[in-house]
């Protein structure tokens, strides 16, 4: 898969997340794919775990804005800056439990903004084999 095709695949991933289509998101992943979001805690691996990860994000009405992807010259990777905004519940509550984010006054009405860099590894057939989302606690903010 050439650089342009890998960039298009990364943007297609972003489009499917914004469309809220769980099945279409999982279809982009290899059966043994690994997602680290964020990099650091335990990664999730395999379609069932990937599905559960995105089901949680979609339940929070996540919306992502991606910058222009950058292709690696290794014929495998794409790097993309992504800003995500989602409902505080349920994901923000998990972040708060881990000490990453403050609990807002009215959690039911709050949103969370998260800035990240996503390193996506795409195999020759166009399937995502790895997605690593790099972000720290200073990249999180409660909105409203």
From TrEMBL:
SUPFAM superfamilies: NTF2-like. Residues 12-122 form the SnoaL-like domain. InterPro entries: NTF2-like_dom_sf, SnoaL-like. It comes from Streptomyces acidiscabies. Signal peptide: none annotated. This is Nuclear transport factor 2 family protein. It comes from the Bacteria. It holds the Pfam family SnoaL_2.
């Amino acid at each position: 898969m050439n650089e342009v095709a890998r960039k298009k695949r990364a943007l297609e991933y972003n489009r499917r997340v914004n469309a809220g289509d769980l099945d279409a998101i999982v279809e982009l992943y290899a059966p043994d794919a690994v997602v680290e979001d964020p990099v650091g805690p335990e990664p999730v691996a395999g379609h069932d775990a990937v599905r559960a990860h995105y089901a949680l994000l979609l339940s929070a009405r996540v919306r992502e804005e991606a910058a222009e992807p950058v292709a690696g010259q290794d014929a495998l990777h794409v790097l993309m800056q992504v800003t995500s905004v989602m409902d505080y519940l349920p994901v923000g509550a998990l972040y708060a439990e881990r000490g990453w984010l403050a609990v807002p006054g009215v959690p039911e009405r709050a949103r969370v903004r998260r800035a990240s860099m996503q390193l996506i590894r795409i195999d020759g057939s166009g399937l995502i084999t790895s997605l690593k989302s790099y972000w720290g606690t200073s990249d999180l903010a409660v909105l409203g």
